[in-house]
Specification:
It is built from five helices and 15 strands. It is α/β, with parallel strands linked by helices. It has one domain (about 15-285). The strands form two sheets. Strands 5, 6, 7, 8, 9, 10, 11, 12, 13, 14 and 15 form an eleven-stranded mixed beta sheet that branches. Strands 1-2-3-4 form a four-stranded antiparallel beta sheet, with helices on one face. Strand 1 (about 15-20) and strand 2 (about 25-30) form a beta hairpin. Helix 1 crosses helix 2. The radius of gyration is 21 Å and the shape is globular. It starts with 16 loop residues before the first strand and ends in a 9-residue tail after the last strand. Bound molecules: iron/sulfur cluster. Iron/sulfur cluster (SF4) binds near residues 87 and 152.
């Protein structure tokens, strides 16, 4: 006798989908193409990919491991939501506003992707998972590939299944969230970010063998904005813990454990440099003490 089996019906999205919310209009044309307009965008932005090649980003281009990154617009910069829930005095000095960050096309793409994250979450996650699988598939199985999803955000991607969906990718990020530090997943390494207000947590993480990034600046009368900022030295230790040069590569998963990742205060203008210093975000280098580089 034949038994009746229930057939699962997959609901297919009927494109185009139009979403209007918080002053923005999102049009999802297909699983791979969307247009975002309105809000803080002076003109409509087409989005056909979420991840960017590491080579095109000064943060990740020094990595020897093929790396891709996801660049959103930080904090509450799109006018609603907040992709950096723990950000305090890092907001003004955020690297998202340095280098190419203020270029309208760069900023527009980041804003549009962030709007998609909030207003078209299912589309966003499907697209992201697809791009991650495609990226992994480009390389042989033995080749390590890396992805940094929080280039300018602090989203707990492990809560959305993204990290577990791709065990063949090594993910890494920085965070200001004290509850997601270290080996958050076997394939996800997260470095805690000191911002001038979270010293006790930073030291606790270091004692536990996790890593902490600290931004340093050199007090000097010489020019230290733009490219010159990269020439600032780093101290050899911070709070008694060894400092390594975080500017040599962005590839944090290979760092030794229990060390400080020393970063230089990179500012496009003296105004943003001053904001990073006066807020306590960046730490002054005491040149009387041993210097790393
Ligand atoms: S948490 Fe990171 S990405 Fe967010 S504003 Fe601060 S420095 Fe920028």
């Amino acid at each position: 006798m034949k038994t009746k089996t229930k057939t699962k019906t997959k609901t297919k999205t009927a494109f185009p989908v139009v979403i209007e919310k918080n002053g923005y209009t999102v049009v999802l044309h297909s699983p791979s193409k969307a247009t975002v307009s309105g809000g803080r965008l002076p003109e409509a932005v087409n989005v056909s990919h979420l991840l960017g090649e590491g080579d095109a980003n000064p943060k990740t281009k020094k990595n020897k491991v093929p790396t891709m990154g996801l660049s959103l617009f930080p904090y509450n910069g799109i006018g609603f939501g907040n992709v950096c829930a723990f950000a305090k005095n890092c907001v003004v000095s955020c690297l998202a506003h340095q280098g190419q960050g203020p270029v309208p096309s760069v900023m527009g793409a980041r804003v549009a992707k962030t709007v998609l994250w909030y207003l078209a979450r299912e589309w966003f996650l499907r697209r992201l998972n697809h791009e991650l699988a495609t990226f992994r598939g480009k390389y042989g199985r033995r080749r390590t590939v890396g992805v940094r999803l929080n280039m300018f955000s602090d989203i707990p991607w492990e809560d959305y299944g993204v990290i577990d969906n791709h065990p063949g990718i090594t993910f890494y990020d920085y965070t200001k969230n004290p509850r997601r530090v270290g080996d958050v997943r076997p394939n996800y390494w997260v470095t805690f970010s000191y911002d001038g207000t979270n010293e006790a947590e930073a030291v606790r993480h270091l004692r536990e063998g996790k890593n902490v990034s600290v931004v340093f600046y050199l007090e000097t009368d010489e020019a230290v904005c733009g490219k010159a900022a990269h020439r600032q030295p780093l101290p050899a230790t911070w709070n008694g813990f060894e400092v390594i040069d975080g500017g040599a590569t962005d590839w944090r998963p290979s760092d030794p454990w229990g060390v400080v990742i020393g970063l230089r205060l990179l500012a496009r203008t003296y105004e943003s440099r001053e904001a990073g210093i006066s807020s306590g975000f960046a730490q002054k280098i005491d040149t009387r003490l041993p210097i790393l580089s």
